[in-house]
Amino acid sequence: MASAGKITIALYNSAGQMIKVLVNQQQEAGTYTMQWNTGDLPKGSYFITAAAEGNLKQTIKLVKQ
Fold first, then answer.
1. How many domains does the chain have?
2. 22 and 9 in contact (C-beta within 8 Å)?
3. Which of 14, 35, 44, 57 is least surrounded by Cβ atoms within 10 Å, i.e. has the fewest?
4. What is the DSSP string of 4-48?
5. 32 contact partners, CB below 8 Å, separation of at least 6
6. Burial (0-12, 13-18, 19+ Cβ within 10 Å), 26
7. Do residues 31 and 42 make contact, with C-beta atoms less than 8 angstroms apart?
8. Helix, strand, or coil here: 54?
9. Region label for 9, one of left (φ > 0), alpha (ψ between -120 and 50) or beta (otherwise)
10. What is the model's pTM?
């Protein structure tokens, strides 16, 4: 994150339904990593969306086999 702000990272299924919020908190500026065990998810396609204040948003596709 280039500057401090609230960040939300959420997991969606292929139908666009939110499955889980992974992060929803205020963060200081900096680089972050996270680990998450997908063992509780069935096989399929998912989307992870990261959104931060200032209209910053990124979505990536996750395929669990």
1. 1
2. yes
3. 35
4. -EEEEEEEEETTS-EEEEEEEEEE-SS-------GGGSPSEEEEE
5. 1
6. exposed
7. no
8. coil
9. beta
10. 0.84
Q: Which two tokens stand for residue 16?
A: 């666009």
Residue 4 has what pLDDT? 85
Supply 43's token pair: 């096989």
Structure tokens at 35: 């680990």
Per-residue pLDDT of the chain (65 residues; tens, 9 = 90+): 778 889 999 999 999 999 999 999 999 988 889 888 888 899 999 999 999 987 789 999 999 99
Range of the structural domain that residue 42 is part of: 5-64
